[in-house]
Design goal:
mainly alpha
């Protein structure tokens, strides 16, 4: 009788452990793609607008990188202590590997978007410098 209740208690605690460990794994999202940032992208006209958008994407990428680190630690736990998870160990491992791949793709996309907006900002700087040079040349010719 004592053995059955001990096994039952162990099973319940294992279910709780699995639920707590797998909860962060399902919380991965692409926080960089919000209605606010889409509106900012559509309305970006100045160098500082594009710089702010680039910073937003870089911050999102660094946050996602932190999630990747957490998922890699979790994956290591699943691999090193697979006996704790029973039949679900391989499912948990493959699920976590898929989350890591998804996060890494998101990081690459965020960094690419940041680089694109930094490039747009530098082109706006170049265009602004060129237009200032041309306007000062025009002013000099009228003197």
């Amino acid at each position: 009788m004592k053995t059955k209740s001990g096994k039952f208690l162990a099973a319940i605690s294992m279910i709780g452990l699995l639920a707590s460990l797998s909860a962060p794994a399902t919380a991965v999202d692409n926080s960089a793609d919000t209605p606010e940032i889409r509106a900012a992208i559509q309305n970006a006209t100045t160098r500082s607008d594009h710089e702010a958008i680039a910073i937003h994407y870089e911050d999102a990428a660094s946050q996602m990188q932190a999630k990747v680190s957490e998922q890699k630690e979790l994956l290591e736990q699943y691999q090193n202590k697979s006996y704790l998870y029973g039949r679900r160990a391989q499912d948990l491992q493959s699920h976590t590997e898929a989350l890591i791949r998804n996060c890494e793709r998101t990081i690459a996309a965020d960094m690419q978007a940041a680089a694109l907006h930094r490039q747009m900002a530098s082109k706006l700087d170049e265009n602004h410098a060129t237009s200032e040079t041309q306007s000062s040349a025009l002013q000099a010719s009228y003197r």
